[in-house]
Specification:
Distance between the termini: 28 Å
Number of strands: 0
Number of domains: 1
Largest sheet: none
Shape: elongated
Radius of gyration: 14 Å
Length: 85
Amino acid sequence: MDRKSPVPDSPFRRWLELFHAARRETDEKKRRDCIEAAQKAIHERARELTKESSGPENYDLMMERLLIDVALMNLRSLLEQRPAA
């Protein structure tokens, strides 16, 4: 089942799709490439969020920051996993 984002083409959706692609990939080389692309997109979005948060705290921005932290931890874990024999 595909997950639908409430925002059709948002920065949040872009990095989230890359994250899910990295988790689903079975080929080790492609998986690492997906993980690197996801990490790059996530770090870019984190920089954008830093610029956007110059005013009062926005709940949506705060939630996305939390999701970014969790996604990065999961991607690091995927990188540390050994390929199945």
